[in-house]
Amino acid sequence: MGVADPKGLVGVEHYKKWIEKGYHGPMEYLANHLHLRQDVDSLLPGVRSVICVGLNYNQPVSNLPDQPRIARYALGRDYHKVIRTKLKSLGRLLESHHPGLGWRACVDSAPIFEREYSHLAGLGWFGKNTCLINSQRGSWFLLGTLLTTLAFEPDKPALGGCGTCRLCIDACPTQCIVLEEGKWQVDGRKCISTLTIEQKGDWDPSIAPLIGDWTFGCDICQEVCPFNQVRPTQPSRATTSQEPDLLSQRQWPDLVQLTQISHEDWDRLTQGSAVRRVGHEGIKRNAAQNLHNRQNLSEDKLGKPETT
Ligand code: B12
Ligand code: SF4
Ligand code: SF4
Description:
- By secondary structure, the chain is α+β, with helices and mostly antiparallel strands.
- It has one domain (1-308).
- The chain has helices at 12-20, 34-38, 79-97, 114-120, 167-171, 192-198, 220-223, 255-259, 263-269, 279-296; strands spanning 2-4, 49-56, 69-70, 103-106, 125-126, 132-133, 141-148, 177-180, 183-186, 214-216.
- The strands form four sheets. Strands 1-2-7-4 form a four-stranded antiparallel beta sheet.
- The longest helix is centred in the N-terminal third of the chain and has 19 residues, at 79-97.
- The mean pLDDT is 95.
- One iron/sulfur cluster (SF4) binds next to helix 5.
C-alpha cells in the first residue's frame, strides 16, 4: 500500500484522447463523469489523501482443452467485494482513531484513475501493456483506493520501466497494444478482455478466431512478462496469493456444457463471482467460439496445457 496526493494527476489529457479515439469501445461509462475523475474532491469533499492498495491474485492455472479458460483475477470471489470489505475495515479503523474523519472505499466503483494514483503511491510503474508493474512483485495484483480527509505524507512514485522488451506486444493476439504519441496504450475495442466480457452480441468475424481459447478475460500480456517470472534472485515475484477468497473455488462445467447451461444453473454457478458480468448469453457465445477455435486453430495459437 501507499499514499498519493489527490492533486497529483498528470494523465487526464492522455485519458481524454484515449476516449476521443473510441478506445473504450462498448464501455460507454468510461466517457462519463470526467469532471469527477479529474477532481476526487467531488467524490469525497475535503479529501487529502488517496490510500492505494494492491492485492496479489496470482495462482496456478491448468489449461485443459475441454475446460473454459478464465483470467486469473476472476477465478475466486469477485475482487470488488473482497477488496472493498478490507478497505472498509481500514476506513473504520482510521475513523476509530480520528472521529469525524471522512472516507470512501473504491474498487472500480467510482470514476477514479486507480492505476495512476497507485503509481503515484509507489505501488508500481506503467508497463507497455499498460498494467501497473512492481519491480519486486510483478503485475498480478488488483487495485483499490481509500479516499480520506486525513492528511498523510504522500509516498514517492514508483520507478521502473520495460527497457527494450516487447514480449507482450508481440504476444498479444489482436495486436491491440499500440504506441501513439509516445505512449503505450491498449485499444480496448480489440482487447480480448473487452471482447469476452464487455461486448454484447456478435463479434466481427475477423476478430472471433483471435479470441482463441479465452472464455473470460485474457492474461497473455502478463503471462509473458519477465516481471511475472519466478527467479531465484527475485523470490517475491509471481508468488501465489495468500488471499483465500481470490483463489479458484469453483468447478466450472466443460465448454460443451457451458454452451448449453440453463439460466438457473448459470445463476447458481456465478453467485459472488466476477464471471457473472459476462451474462448467460455471453458465456454461451464465448464457449461456442472457444470450441470452434479449438477445431480450427493450431495448438500453438491456443493455451498450453498445465502451465503455472
Ligand atoms: C477500462 C478497464 C479495462 C479495459 C481497458 C484497459 C486499458 N488498458 O485501458 C479492458 C476491458 C481492456 C481491461 C482489461 C484488463 N484489465 Co482493466 N480496467 C479498466 C479500468 C476500469 C479503467 C482503466 C482506464 O481508465 N483505462 C484508460 C487508460 C487511458 O487509463 P490507464 O491505463 O489507467 O492510463 C493512465 C496512465 O496512462 C496515465 N498517464 C498518462 N500519461 C502519463 C504520464 C506519466 C508520467 C504517468 C505517471 C502516468 C500517465 O494516465 C492514464 C489515466 O490515469 C481499471 C480500473 C480503474 N478504475 O482504473 C481496470 C484495471 C486497469 N484493470 C485491471 C485488470 C486486472 C485487467 C486485466 C488484466 C483483466 C483480464 N485478465 O482480462 C486486463 C488487462 C489488459 C491490459 N493490458 O490493460 C486492473 C489492473 C491492475 C494492474 N496491476 O494494473 C485494474 C486497475 C482494475 C483493478 N481495480 O485492479 N481493463
Ligand atoms: S489482455 Fe490479451 S488481448 Fe488484451 S492487451 Fe493483453 S494480450 Fe492483448
Ligand atoms: S512483457 Fe516486456 S514490454 Fe510488456 S510489460 Fe512486461 S516488461 Fe514491459
